[in-house]
Write a structure and sequence with these properties.
Structural class: alpha+beta
CATH architecture: 2-Layer Sandwich
Shape: elongated
Strand content: 15-25%
Number of strands: 5
Number of domains: 1
Number of helices: 4
Strand order of the largest sheet: 3-4-5
Length: 139
């Protein structure tokens, strides 16, 4: 069980991990040992609430496949365990971001004073620009 927040958790069996050979730091070791981890999380089949699933699919962007599987790739460390922890930490961070409900926008209107100030500034700016124009009698 991986705790996301105090009320949300995901089970270990909801995460599929595959280890592959990595490029990058590690020297000759990277040619021999599969240290990179490819973490796969099926959003649709998970135990998360539906609203979090929807936000997670949106936040995942190109990392979410057409069938709703989120793929996180980690190959920044030399060891398999550190890459595994890094990938899981990124998954937890993404789910925590999806768990935060966005604030609803309440439409407002500009006040009368703000509208008048905007018009005044537009007229001043127009006056500055018209003063720059070349007049036919100036030639």
């Amino acid at each position: 069980m991986i705790a996301i927040t105090d009320t949300i958790a995901i089970h270990e069996n909801e995460i599929a991990e595959r280890f592959v050979r990595a490029s990058g730091p590690g020297g000759q070791n990277v040619n021999k040992v599969a240290t990179a981890v490819e973490l796969r999380f099926d959003i649709g089949a998970s135990s998360l609430p539906q609203e979090i699933k929807n936000r997670l699919t949106t936040l995942g962007g190109s990392r979410v496949s057409a069938d709703g599987v989120l793929t996180i790739d980690s190959r920044e460390h030399r060891t398999q365990t550190m890459n595994r922890e890094a990938a899981r930490a990124r998954l937890v961070a993404l789910i925590q971001r999806a768990a935060v409900r966005p604030r609803t926008r309440r439409p407002t209107r500009p006040s009368r004073a703000a509208r008048e100030q905007r018009i005044t500034e537009k007229k001043q700016r127009g006056g500055v620009k018209s003063a720059r124009q070349r007049r036919p009698d100036d030639e």
